[in-house]
Amino acid sequence: CAKLGEGWGYDEINLNCGCPSERVQRGAFGACLMAEPQLVADCVKAMVDAVDVPVTVKHRIGIDKTESYGFVRDFVGTVAEAGCRTFIVHARNAWLKGLSPKQNREVPPLRYELVHRLKHDFPALRFSINGGIADDDTVHTQLRLLDGVMIGREAYHNPWWLADWDTSFFGDAPRDITREEIESRMCDYMAREAAAHGTPWSNIARHMLGLRNGLPGARRWRQVWSDHKLKGLAPHAVMALAHEPAAQDA
Fold first, then answer.
1. Which pTM value belongs to this model?
2. DSSP code of 124?
C-alpha cells in the first residue's frame, strides 16, 4: 500500500493510530494499535524500507483510562526507532469502549501539555498537534512550541478560515478574493470533472457546504446546493439559484 501511495504522487505515507471506531478496531488498526507499539514499529520499518517518501504516524496521547505520559512517550520512542521522524498527535485519549467516534473527538479532555513534553523529550523529531484548534491565536501559540498544527473538521466545516493563512503564516502578499469567486471556481471545476469523468456536481458540491458558514442566508444556500432535484442544471446555474435566497436574507 505504501508503494501504491508513493506511486500516485503522495508526499508522505501516514499510518493512522488514532481512530477509535469499533469498525476500525475490528480490523485491528486505528487507536487500538497504540497498545502494540512494537507492531506499529514493525509496520513503520517495512514502509520506510519500501518507499522514499516520509512515513509518519498519527496517534492519540493514550487509550481508554491510560492517562500516564509514560504510555505515549514509550509509544513514540519505540516507533521512532523504526524510522518514523514525524508524529501528528491528537491531544486526547481514545476511549475504545463506550464512546462514539464523534464523542471521542469531544469528551476526552484535551491535554496539549503532553504533546509539548514529547517535543521536549524528543527534540530531533517533528511533532504536529491536533484537536480542538479553531482560531489563529491558538495556531500561532502552538507553532511557537511545536513543528506543526493539524486542522481537521474545522477546515471542512469552516474552510473560509483558511483564506488568509498564506499571509498569516507564510508571509505571502494578501490576496483579494471573495467566497463568491471561490464558489465560481468550484463551479468551473465541477464542469470540467463532469466533462472529463461524468462526475455529478453534487459529489463535489457537498464538500464545500461550509463555505458560507456563519453568513446570513447560509442555510438556504446549503439547501440549494444539496437539492438533488437540481442535478440536471449546470453548476453555475445552481450557484445563481443558491444566491437568490442568500441575497434576500443578507
1. 0.88
2. T
